[in-house]
Amino acid sequence: MRTKIRHSSPLGSLASFLVILCVLVMTGCENPADKIDDVSVSQSSGDSHTKMLELLDQLADETHLNPFVGDGEAKRLEEILGKLPKHQLGTQQEVAVRVMLSEKRIQFGSTDTAIEHLLAANEILEKLPAEQQVADSKRVNISLLFQMGVAYMRLAETQNCVHCQSCESCILPIQGEGLHQKQQPATEAMRCFSLVLKQDPEHIHARWMLNLAAMTIGLYPDNVPKEFRVDPKLFEPETDFPKFRNISADVGLDTLSLAGGIVLDDFNGDHLIDVLVSTWHTEGQLQYFQRQKDGSFQDKTDDAGLVGLFGGLNMLQADYDNDGDVDVLVLRGGWISAGRPHPNSLLQNDGKGHFRDVTLMAGLGEVHRAILTADWADYDNDGDLDLYLGNELQPSQLFQNNGDGTFQDVAQTAGVSNRLIARGVSWGDFNEDRYPDLYVSNYSSPNRLYQNNKDGTFTDVGRDLRVAGPVRSFPAWFWDYNNDGHLDLYVSAYDIDEKKWIYDYLGMPHDGMTDRLYHGSGGTFQEVSSDHGVDLMTLPMGSNFGDINNDGFLDYYLGTGYTDFEALMPNRMFLNQQGEKFQEVTIAGGFGHLQKGHGIAFADFDQDGDQDVFSQLGGSFNGDAFQNALYENPGFKNHWLIVKLIGEKSNRSGIGAKIRVVLEEDSAERSVYRWVNSGGSFGANPLRQHIGLGKASSIKRLEIYWPTSDTTQTFEDLAVNQFLVITEGRETFELVPYDPLPFQRKQPKKISPVISN
């Protein structure tokens, strides 16, 4: 997905005359809701849950007006086209309307209709007399041909990957079961991209798309002209690494949706990992899949009380009321700068996997602000979790937990209003003074590192500590990537440029912004991106980290892309090499899905001791839906430990607690560190921590540091491959049975609550 700030139009030079013609043909057609304001919500009209259902139902009723998932604009353009005066037919005016209409139709999912309008526009341009030709007609023709190629590619994806999906669909390199059976759309796409390159051999995006189109129908590399062929070595395994198979369809989790969030955790107290997934479509139902003791997933959306709770671009969980279960925050409204404001939802869990919306009752719904990022922490160390909301168009909010189930916004007093376009939020005690600090990743502005002053206020030290870049950024998180016991910081770049990211992926020079890795030393940071091989132009939204090979070092996975349909780029996985560098394993591991990646989460679903990877897939527009993916870990024969913390003086979730595992491996002692949280800023891992131990056969010492109580619990001489529940202050722990629970394979039930084709 992409902000309103753009570097170029997908139609290139067409934009220059389309803007002018828009004024001529669409006067009086402006959006009636031109900005989002704070909207007060009264609790007097009913209880919190019922009121939220009413608000979301109102948004659902207005879906046709939504600029991303509605067809209101398309219908308006169709009406304009039908009423064009005769003297404008066959002219630039008709071309302008048809091109705009094609864009809206492909966005809505009517790709065949979009192609018809593009073909008609192209025919008109070819017949225009010389005196009526568009300025720079060659570039306009190139742009139109490129857009036709993109439309054919989307048609190819819809026919072959959405409607006829296999486990290998849309995963780079496309081969085997991923090859398209219906080949005409991709063949037409190849023709269009070839015509573009004939006129402009340096068109890097057409070159990339030509190779992808050829690959989908088995014509790559041999049938791609040598001068335009992408080196086949780019699609070879980067290193010796096993393949993770996408099994979402096998286990019934391949829900078809648009961009959304994912939370993996135990919602009903049986210690099994359940799935809560969202889509940002205003008619898109939250979906809850409960893991069963037979290895299956059961759709419990209705039983959980979630029916009517629509939408959600991102989600994250925490036990905000300290009652011992996992509650969920749903974030809405991000990217949408017009229309009715979208409320967030705080879903209170009763411990059995039943939810009610308490947003208004909790004091979180007095105003609605566009948002897609937030994070939980106990910033004042009073034993309950506070909440930071990183808003887009208005000041961000810091909600202090009152301890009675309600919150109050103290952002202005605390000095953390930000007042910029927040894209990622992460809490972490970088200076190790017991009080969590706050990193805010902003788009098109310097990032913030708010140092906690321990008196309820914060000071932005981002520039002073040289962690304010990149200027255009998105996901960000604190973690300890090298196990030195100090928090480090990862900040992704989101410098949208239709050329530069391809240059970067092909290993060509460019001047685009790249991702940053800051090595922490307990109060200061050093930028080490290049040294660790992560100075890349990846363009992620979805993101998270985990330890896929159980070596004790954290790896990370990025869900990539931006709004436009030509943004076909692989999601990317990076394997930590003992904290010294990161090795990409996107191709080798089978993670290179080309569909737009959003919520990412790591969890051991099948209880075989290794983390599987869930990826919520789908774009922002109604016509850019896709099925979610679940990558099964093939196993690495390393050992592991799972630790669930229960706070007493500290917050019940244990968020912010520091775990140290001391082990001996290859006759040398080393430590593995984890901080309790749900991971990266777009997607939520379970709050229980899965810790890889490598080849260590036993644990010398396990330490839990609780910042709120400033105490450390120590357990010695523990066995590996265990699930421990540790309660703050207790001398013993609970050992949870953790027998393997293989996935139950079945024919999936297709759920497509939001898609039109």
Tell me what the structure shows.
Among the domains are: 245-632, YVTN repeat-like/Quinoprotein amine dehydrogenase (Methylamine Dehydrogenase, Chain H, 7 Propeller); 639-736, Sandwich (Immunoglobulin-like), CATH 2.60.40.1110. The protein has eleven helices and 38 strands. A hairpin with a 2-residue loop joins strand 32 (658-665) and strand 33 (668-675). It is of the alpha+beta class.
In short:
It is built from eleven helices and 38 strands. With 757 residues, the protein is α+β, with helices and mostly antiparallel strands. Strand 35 and strand 36 form a beta hairpin.
Fold topology:
Blueprint: H1 14-25, H2 48-61, H3 72-82, H4 92-108, H5 111-127, H6 137-162, H7 184-199, H8 204-216, E1 245-246, H9 248-251, E2 256-257, E3 262-265, E4 274-277, E5 287-291, E6 297-299, E7 314-318, E8 327-331, E9 345-349, E10 355-357, E11 371-377, E12 386-391, E13 397-401, E14 407-409, H10 411-414, E15 422-428, E16 437-442, E17 448-452, E18 458-460, E19 473-479, E20 488-493, H11 500-505, E21 516-520, E22 525-527, E23 540-546, E24 555-560, E25 572-577, E26 581-584, E27 597-603, E28 612-617, E29 626-627, E30 629-632, E31 639-646, E32 658-665, E33 668-675, E34 689-694, E35 698-706, E36 711-719, E37 722-727, E38 734-736
Parallel strand pairs: 31-37
Antiparallel strand pairs: 1-30, 2-29, 3-4, 4-5, 5-6, 7-8, 8-9, 9-10, 11-12, 12-13, 13-14, 15-16, 16-17, 17-18, 19-20, 20-21, 21-22, 23-24, 24-25, 25-26, 27-28, 28-30, 31-34, 32-33, 32-35, 35-36, 37-38
